[in-house]
């Protein structure tokens, strides 16, 4: 990771301790990816002093969990196509097979 | 060739896989008509390439991979057209999350406890419909990125290359999508 880019995102340490925008960005990045050691430390410092972002962290984790659960329950929901559509579809496949 | 077709057995495709593929598509695009079309397109596309089936995966896995590719195509199309206006609106919505000068939460938008923590989603379908509505409010591109990540655990690299977003945009999108989603839930919580 080029440090120049990092500095651009992070700015100096004292900024993160006051910056909820950046802290929530790091929270999201950490949830599904990786943050650097330095970012990790900065985030911890921020969270130590910021009760609003602590609430955010708790809620955003829960939301990810709920979203995953909802997605997976909808995958397993077993939606059914109506029989008419299915018959047409299989007929169409048979037509294609007969062409060859 | 004959051998491979026997292994694939298109004569039973609809019976064996249509409902599964339909559920798979619905979960990812939330549009019944479009899902039906995609199932049909998947079978037809699969027929065109039965000779490419190597027998390394199951018939269902192979068909699902074709469908998945078509879904990503839908995402791509949805996110190109109107996306700019969409993104602008959503960005404006969230520009007042933080104070532009110091990055603090603004007092109106700061997260507060609203009873989400000990919530069991399995217990309540009503909640899922709120969640679904809040997801649908996200701009198409954000929703696509979000769905690929949270439903299929797709790698960041794959999502970026399929949807043509840069890595840094990817993180910005994930961040903004989540900020908006959380705010929407707090606002509409029952």
Quick tags:
heterodimer, A: 100 residues, mainly alpha, B: 9 helices
Model description:
The complex is a heterodimer of chains A (100) and B (190). In chain A, helix 3 crosses helix 4 and helix 3 (20-32) packs parallel to helix 5. Chain A is 80% helix and 0% strand. Chain A starts with a helix and ends with a helix. With 100 residues, chain A is an all-alpha fold. The mean pLDDT of chain A is 84. The relative contact order of chain B is 0.11. Helices cover 69% and strands 0% of the residues of chain B. Chain B is elongated and about 60 Å long. At the A-B interface, helix 3, helix 5 and helix 6 of A face helix 2, helix 3, helix 6, helix 7 and helix 9 of B.
Task: Describe how the helices and strands are arranged.
The complex is a heterodimer of chains A (100) and B (190).
Chain A: H1 3-10, H2 13-16, H3 20-32, H4 37-49, H5 51-75, H6 83-99
Chain B: H1 2-8, H2 13-29, H3 32-48, H4 59-80, H5 83-95, H6 125-136, H7 140-152, H8 156-163, H9 167-188
Helix pairs in contact in B: 2-3, 2-4, 3-4, 4-7, 6-9, 7-8, 7-9
Mean pLDDT over the residues of chain A = 84
Main interface: chain pair and counts? A-B, 47 and 54 residues
Helices and strands of chain B: which structural class? Answer: mainly alpha
Overall shape of chain B: it is elongated
Q: Approximately what portion of the residues of chain A adopt beta-strand conformation?
A: under 5%
The percent range for helix content of chain B is 55-70%
- Helix-strand category of chain A: mainly alpha
- Written as H for each helix and E for each strand, in order along the chain, the element string of chain A is HHHHHH
**What is the quaternary state of this protein?**
heterodimer
Our estimate of the beta-strand percent of chain B is: under 5%
Helical stretch count of chain A?
6
Q: Which word captures the global form of chain A?
A: elongated
Largest sheet of chain A, described in full? none
Distance between the termini of chain A: 54 Å
Q: Low-confidence runs of chain B (pLDDT<50, min 5 residues)? A: none
What's the number of helices of chain B? Answer: 9
- The SSE string of chain B, one letter per element, is HHHHHHHHH
* CA-CA gap between termini of chain B: 58 Å
Question: Taking Cα atoms only, what radius of gyration of chain A do you get, to the nearest Å?
Answer: 24 Å
Q: How many β-strand stretches of chain B?
A: 0
Low-confidence stretches of chain A: none
């Amino acid at each position: 990771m080029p440090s120049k880019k990092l500095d651009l995102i992070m700015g100096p340490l004292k900024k993160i301790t006051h910056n909820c925008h950046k802290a929530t960005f790091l929270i999201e990045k950490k949830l599904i990816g990786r943050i650097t050691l330095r970012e990790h430390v900065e985030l911890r410092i921020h969270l130590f002093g910021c009760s609003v972002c602590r609430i955010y962290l708790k809620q955003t984790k829960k939301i990810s969990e709920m979203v995953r659960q909802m997605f997976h329950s909808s995958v397993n929901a077993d939606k059914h196509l109506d029989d008419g559509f299915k018959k047409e579809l299989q007929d169409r496949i048979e037509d294609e097979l007969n062409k060859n | 060739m004959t051998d491979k077709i026997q292994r694939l057995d298109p004569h039973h495709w609809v019976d064996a896989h249509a409902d599964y593929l339909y559920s798979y598509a619905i979960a990812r695009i939330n549009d019944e008509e479009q899902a039906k079309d995609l199932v049909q397109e998947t079978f037809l596309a699969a027929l065109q390439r039965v000779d490419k089936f190597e027998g390394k995966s199951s018939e269902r896995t192979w068909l699902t991979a074709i469908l998945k590719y078509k879904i990503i195509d839908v995402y791509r199309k949805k996110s190109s057209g109107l996306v700019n206006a969409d993104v602008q609106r959503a960005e404006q919505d969230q520009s007042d999350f933080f104070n532009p000068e110091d990055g603090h939460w603004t007092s109106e938008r700061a997260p507060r406890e609203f009873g989400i923590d000990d919530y069991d989603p399995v217990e309540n379908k009503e909640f899922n419909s709120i969640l679904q509505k809040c997801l649908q409010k996200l701009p198409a591109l954000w929703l696509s990125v979000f769905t690929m990540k949270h439903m299929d655990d797709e790698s960041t690299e794959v999502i970026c290359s399929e949807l043509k977003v840069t890595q840094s945009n990817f993180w910005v999108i994930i961040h903004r999508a989540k900020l908006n989603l959380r705010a929407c839930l707090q606002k509409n919580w029952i």
